[in-house]
DNA sequence: CGCTCTATTGATAAACCTCAAATACAGTGG
DNA sequence: CCACTGTATTTGAGGTTTATCAATAGAGCG
């Protein structure tokens, strides 16, 4: 049921390893440090010194950002094969977000000196790293546009579609978003409140677009959501 | 009155040239192509193939992003010494934004092959480029948090403070934001409407925090704006 | 079965947008 | 210098969206 990610998958699919051979990946992994995280534990905190970057090998992380008043948004979810904290590590700065594991999660961490040495030895790593950061930039710019210009229900639709593409798993009745996802989570990811999410999902359930339970969403009619998100 | 930026300033202040000697900068500039832009002209369009990156040497650019319904946000302003479109160029993708000049503006453009060759010759360029992209990511993530969690007037305060830090020029009566800046611009930069901006500025003017005219803002009490932006 | 956490729903209020109309301003040409 | 024109801005009224609060229902777990 949980999405896992074997080491051999890693070689094939991890964004950090594009263009590298399996033996090279093994060596690179050998220079990192494995961490096992219990569900709901924190890998790093917003504001801490960002010395490491991490590759998720099993499970998922949730990246959240808090403002001074204590309100939270979800910047991104990070799944197996994806890298996080590359920016903070490269910049020698503070982590701009907090990373929390959703279920049991395994990550490999490298500190900056190690990463720099690896980049010298395997220049593809540097390229992949830049590529990763650029994708993050593109994603958040799109979402910035959305949150500035679109209504709440359209943003919720987009959030669900994004999460579906990222963690969707085919079921007999539709596509399950295969992580525990509360109304509050969806709200934090869409820039709204859990009440509005709840009302919106109820309405969509009546129309047969989604089916939802406790921390669980199944998307029945993705096409309807797409055209709803893009309506004028 | 207009902020200009001589070639020698370039060597000292441009983010692309950190760590490089003046002679090296000259050579690098020699490999680029100068463009002169009339006010309000477009350097590149959202959706075009992103083959070049640009360093602004005089004037300013406004980067805007449009959604399918035609609503616009301002992603960023780019001033003399700053680089833009690095991400699109590196990624071989499409420009995610449109760049429009505010006044007469001069930029130097490099295409990807040239930039790659320069990075090989001067690795500092690669480092500076990454640094630039990371700064953009950090900035937009902060603003994403703000637009999700804060009220309109707080966001307007933050926008003005950001623009003040970026283009502020000391005057006898306060700090002028030294670009033509309409209520609509502020709205597009804050994720609201020109009407709300107008009302908010009127209120602040009564309190003596700002003084505003046609496309012109002078910030009289920055401290008041800061504490207003950060109130709970 | 009781406890806790999540979700639903209604009522209400606040924030903000939209539309319309009036006013102010800068530049232009007489 | 002044009238004219095209924007930019202001302001009011009204409406919509969305947040907030409160109370209830449901799900999972020991």
Features:
DNA-binding; alpha+beta; 24% strand; 9 helices; homodimer
Explain what you see.
The structure is a homodimer of 232-residue chains. Chain A is of the alpha+beta class and 232 residues long. Chain A is built from nine helices and twelve strands. In chain A, the strands form three sheets. The first copy, chain A, has a four-stranded antiparallel beta sheet. Chain A has a four-stranded antiparallel beta sheet with strand order 2-7-4-5. In chain A, strands 9-10-12-11 form a four-stranded antiparallel beta sheet. In chain A, β9 and β10 form a beta hairpin. In chain A, α4 packs across α5, α6 packs across α7 and α6 packs across α9. Chain A is globular. The N and C termini of chain A lie far apart (38 Å). The N terminus of chain A is likely disordered. Chains A and B meet through β5, α3 and α5 of A and β5, α3 and α5 of B. Chain A binds a DNA duplex (30 and 30 nucleotides) through α8.
